[in-house]
Amino acid sequence: MPAHDAAVTDVPPPALKAFGDRFRGRLFGPADAGYDDARTIWNGAIDRRPGLIARCADARDAVAAVRLALEHDLRVSVRGGGHGVAGLSLCDDGLVIDLSAMRGVRIDGELGEAYVEAGATLGELDRAAQSFGLAVPAGIVTHTGVAGLTLGGGIGWLTRKHGLTVDNLLEAEVVTANGELVRVSEHENPELLWGLRGGGGNFGVVTSFRFRAHPIGPIVVAGPILFPLERTAEVMDVYREWALDTPDALTTILNVRRAAAPWVPEPLQGLPVCIVIPCWCGPIEEGLAIVEPIRRLGPILDLCEPRPWLEHQQMFDGSVEPGWHYYWKSVELDALSPDAVDAIVQHTWSITSTRSYTIVFQLGGAMARVGDGDTGYGRRAAGYDVNVNSVWLPVERADASTHVGWVRSLFEDLEPMSRGVYVNFLGEEGRDRVRSAYGPETYDRLAGLKARFDPTNLFRSNQNIPPAV
Ligand SMILES: Cc1cc2nc3c(=O)[nH]c(=O)nc-3n(C[C@H](O)[C@H](O)[C@H](O)COP(=O)(O)OP(=O)(O)OC[C@H]3O[C@@H](n4cnc5c(N)ncnc54)[C@H](O)[C@@H]3O)c2cc1C
After folding, report:
1. What is the DSSP letter of 131?
2. 194-227 burial string, b = 16+ CB within 10 Å, else e?
């Protein structure tokens, strides 16, 4: 049997009892009330049955859980916000080290820093930081977990102005694969900080983070501008030049789909659309002028206006509800070529669910000014991350293969134009895809770090980087 692959049922009952007596959080075994809730994650298509879910109350609990796994050679997974699409935060029969009850967030307004426990969601961090007029660059859906998003990179509305989430990560507390709690910063274990800045959950259980936060808002110029799908190529001809030219304070995201959201008026619901979503974090008048070239194209709906940063952050939460079923694949593109746009548009005409979509994140700016080898994150020069996401309801379970097929066929068209992928947008896609998320040099350095900090690959229910031999 490979190392760390035993089931919780293999642990002698007295050892489990002793662990339970020491553990301060909650434990959920298959026979316990609350077990099914505890094994429920964002992607309702995932149905894994862990042997034990150890929902930690604090870092000491996380240490105890890692030590239990080491003593009994257990299969392990680590859960933050539970939003990994592949469900790798859960493992069948093994031990889930669940941080989701550790959600404290503390802001130091004077220093401009945020201290965040590993179970917090982006929304919890956003709200706490905004009460000081601050924000930590993170993702675009507030129910996503800070932990997994950070460890893979973290792209969102502030990427171009203030960099990736990992570019703002100053310090972390980590339970390493030998069961020790260590502090990681530029001064203590700096190579581990390098690895945490993109290397995912490979190096240990992070129990807390310290981030740099930046003044943002409270008002930004942001919101969706909708065009009929058939106008996408024409809109993209303008968008392409405009997006390249605009200051870092502007980040845009494109969403190509059938219109479906509470903010879409009834007559437009279901219409195939290309949505340009600018978010400008600078002086309001300047932002209104900046988005003018897109407005002048004559959209069918224009909701881009001055609005609170917190409101904008939550605007797309309802399009990706927890519990729906999801499957996605992703590519990084250097440029948004007419061929790539055409592939996206053609597939959108034959989209198999009104909830499915293709989302395109604009990158560059501050993120691209960090050197490629400076952090464990992959390719800094990528221009766009494209995520093709099929979404269906649990009652449509029987149609899953149709929705999955739609994603795969668009992915097959886009992949030849791509040189990589963002690790946090990977499903369970195998070692080559993980390698392509980092590029060979960063991957090899991460594998070397893994050999030092987790030589037996205890933490492998993730986008795994096996230890270098
Ligand atoms: C609706 C939605 C919107 C998203 N939007 C964005 C976005 O705007 N920008 C972006 O960059 N990404 C985005 N993502 C992708 C997101 O970054 C990843 O899904 C990320 O893994 C989610 O982290 P989590 O903690 O919620 O998930 P989990 O499933 O809990 O964790 C994912 C993996 O991270 C590791 N991990 C989690 N917590 C810890 C920890 N405390 N210590 C060590 N390892 C840990 C584990 O390997 C785990 O398998 C989005 C995902 C979803 C589902």
Report:
1. T
2. bbbbbbbbbbbbbbbbbbbbbebbebbbbbbbbb
Using CA atoms of 130, 383, 149, 95 in order, give the dihedral in degrees to the nearest 10.
180
What pLDDT digit, counting tens, does each position of 189-211 carry?
999 999 999 999 999 999 999 99
Does residue 239 contact residue 211 with C-beta atoms inside 8 Å? no
DSSP line for 218-285: SEEEE--EEEEGGGHHHHHHHHHHHHHHS-TTEEEEEEEEE--STTS-GGGTT-EEEEEEEEE-S-HH
Angle at 165 between CA 159 and CA 169, to 5 degrees: 140
Sign of CA dihedral 225, 230, 231, 232: positive
Distance from C-alpha of 195 to C-alpha of 369, rounded to nearest angstrom: 19
Q: What is the dihedral of CA 302, 303, 306, 307, to 10 degrees?
A: -170
pTM of the predicted model, to two decimals?
Answer: 0.98
Average confidence (pLDDT) over 444-451? 98
Ligand 1 centre to CA of 423 (Å) is 10
Close Cβ partners of 62 (under 8 Å, ≥ 6 residues apart): 56, 97, 99, 175, 181, 205, 207
Which residues sit with their C-beta closer than 6 Å to ligand 1? 42, 78-85, 88-89, 99, 118, 139-141, 144-145, 147-149, 151-156, 200-201, 205-206, 320, 424, 462
C-alpha R_g of the chain: 22
Q: Which residues pair with 121 in a beta bridge?
A: 145
What's the token pair of residue 202?
């490979």
Q: How many CB atoms lie within 10 A of CB 423?
A: 24
438: three-class secondary structure by DSSP? helix
Please count the other Cβ atoms lying within 10 Å of the Cβ belonging to residue 103.
17
- % the chain with pLDDT above 70: 100
Which SS3 state, helix, strand or coil, does residue 91 take? coil
DSSP state of 198: T
Tokens at 97, concatenated: 């080290």
User: What is the tens place of the pLDDT at every residue in 149-158?
Assistant: 999 999 999 9
Query: Which of 149, 157, 388 to mutate for ligand 1's pocket (most ligand atoms within 8 Å of CB)?
Result: 149
User: Which atom of ligand 1 is the closest one to the Cα of 459?
Assistant: 47
Instruction: Report d(CA 373, CA 337) in Å as an integer.
Output: 27
